[in-house]
Design goal:
Structural class: alpha/beta
Largest sheet: 8 strands, parallel, barrel
Number of helices: 13
Order of helices and strands: EHEHEHEHEHHEHHEHEHHEEHH
Length: 287
């Protein structure tokens, strides 16, 4: 049996203060919708944006998409109110900004009750506490990389300087069983540059990428969906381990290469992700 996977290849940020964008998002092919109360909303309209987010999530209509609310930090004038509103919303997670320690995580979890918590990794201090933060996040949690803020605080230029932090964040998230999402690319008009960055993120081990514009969704989904070759290889591995003569074996020979049980687990995950990302295909296969 394949593991159950809810894909998060593409997570689109939308200002909670923009009702037209929210309505459009209900029909977009992104895997997650993040209504933003923080960076994308001016101080004078934050209260109105919070009220609009509550209405939008209560109305629903986002289908299979993950629904996430990014709140303001608890050290701001709006954070406590955002968390109070978020605690009872019918959403999949709350995204907390500028988390730097496990103690920060605990403060949010205390106020959110049973809501899943996603945390932004976007400061130099968070980079020094990655595993402790990941271990504190809890079930259905996620790391979301804030590469713009991180680069600004580190005073570095270019994505290459961030690679050590990105890799360590992925390792910490994996050790704690979290989803981990790459940061945004601001230049949404340069499709080739976006594809290159998304492919790099995929190869590093990210589950998906956060986005700032709907034009990035299709390319992002394509990059983070298993390719036809990957699916064919995964099917071959699963089929080979299912043969009676391979029952109980920890390693087998397949097409001139060694395949171990860990490769079987990865093959099953690949097929589960492909099926989850292609519900029409999965339904036809099961019919």
């Amino acid at each position: 049996m394949l593991p159950e996977i809810r894909p998060c290849r593409s997570a689109l940020y939308l200002p909670a203060s923009n009702p037209r964008a929210i309505e459009k998002a209900r029909g977009l092919p992104c895997d997650a919708v993040i209504l933003d109360l923080e960076d994308a909303v001016a101080p004078e309209v934050k209260a109105d944006a919070r009220a609009a987010a509550v209405v939008a999530f209560d109305v629903g209509g986002f289908g299979r998409r993950l629904t996430v609310l990014r709140v303001n930090g608890l050290d701001t004038d709006w954070g406590a109110g955002d968390l109070a509103a978020a605690a009872d919303l019918p959403i999949d997670a709350v995204l907390a900004p500028k988390i730097e320690t496990a103690a920060d995580v605990a403060l949010y979890r205390e106020r959110l009750g049973g809501q899943a918590l996603w945390v932004m990794i976007e400061t130099a201090r968070s980079a020094a506490n990655l595993q402790a933060i990941a271990d504190a996040v809890g079930p259905d949690g996620a790391f979301v990389l804030g590469t713009n803020d991180l680069a600004l605080e580190m005073r570095c230029a270019g994505r290459a300087a961030l690679l050590p932090v990105l890799t360590l964040a992925i390792a910490a998230a994996r050790a704690a069983g979290l989803t981990v999402l790459d940061g945004v690319r601001n230049d949404f008009s340069n499709v080739e540059a976006f594809l290159a960055e998304a492919e790099q993120g995929r190869d590093l081990g990210f589950d998906g990428k956060t986005l700032i514009h709907p034009a990035q969704i299709i390319a992002c989904n394509t990059v983070f969906t298993p390719s036809a070759d990957q699916v064919a290889r995964a099917r071959a591995v699963v089929a080979a381990f299912a043969l009676p003569e391979h029952a109980g074996k920890g390693a087998i020979r397949l097409d001139g290469r060694m395949a171990e049980r860990l490769h079987l687990a990865e093959a099953q995950r690949t097929l589960a992700l492909f099926a989850a990302a292609n519900p029409a295909y999965a339904a036809a296969k099961d019919a």
